[in-house]
Amino acid sequence: MRRDLLISIAVALASAAAGGTAGAAESSTLVEDPRPNAALAACASGDVAKGISILGALYAETRNPSYVFNQARCYQKNGQLEPARSSFAEYLRIGTSEPPEDIKRAEGFVKEIDEAIARQQANAPKPVLVTPVSSVEEGRSRTLRVSSIVLAGLGVAAIAAGVYLSLKVQSIEDDINREFAGEDYVTDVGRLQNQLSDGKSYETWQWVGYGVGVAALAGAATTFILSTRASGSPEHAALGVAPALSPDGVGGVLRMRF
Predict the structure, then answer these.
(1) Each residue's pLDDT tens digit, 231-241
(2) 151 and 253 share a domain?
(3) CB–CB of 13/30 below 8 Å?
């Protein structure tokens, strides 16, 4: 600390008169204030609160800026950089009449503290943003619901295609029976072969359509159930898929409630 802490000396003069003797004898006794040494010991041992308290009391009594300087050094030596900087700033504010070398030391300490704080901030770990579990679950539930709708639509379309191809197969069979069933022998072999080939192709693709449709609907049901579990409200969810036939075409009906 500054000059190993300012030692405050209180001088007490005592006079005593010798009874029955001529004249008077004066004696002076120097009494050393123990508080600066106590503050130095407290700061050196890490008891910052005690050291700062003693130095504060001394400054209140004497208005000597050196005690504020020593408070700043007490904070700084114990790693409390922000309070140390504040105390040095206060010292520079009130210590306009302090020795120039002490002003320069205080300014140097402020620079050291600023550099140390900057290093600490640069080396501090970056905050990690943690997504709340509820947000993660809600996002997962939303993704599963969208997947369920897409799969359900695909399933309905595939089954509708299977139904349409089945109707085509039946139509070709009806045409063959109508054109060739009453003949003893086939006169137009090429046409018959074309119809049989078309019928076989339609029949194959109809089963492909049914298979894809069933698989897609099963996937839709699975992802829908998972989405309701992820959202925590399965009792309010419902899924319904049904094919629809009409004279104008084939399709399906998809009903979903969340």
Answers:
(1) 655 445 555 55
(2) yes
(3) no
Containing structural domain, residue 49: 2-15+27-123
pTM score of the predicted model? 0.43
Q: pLDDT tens for residues 85-125?
A: 999 999 999 999 999 999 999 999 999 999 999 999 999 88
Residue 224: inside a domain, yes or no?
A: yes
User: What's the total number of domains in the chain?
Assistant: 2
Under a CB-based contact definition with an 8 Å cutoff, are residues 238 and 256 in contact? yes
Average pLDDT, the chain: 76
Beta partners for residue 31, in sequence order: 10
Q: Are strands 25-32 and 238-246 parallel, antiparallel or unpaired?
A: unpaired
Q: Are residues 104 and 194 in the same domain?
A: no
Residue 13, CB-side half-sphere exposure with 13 Å CA sphere: 3
Which two three-digit tokens encode residue 214? Answer: 């069933």
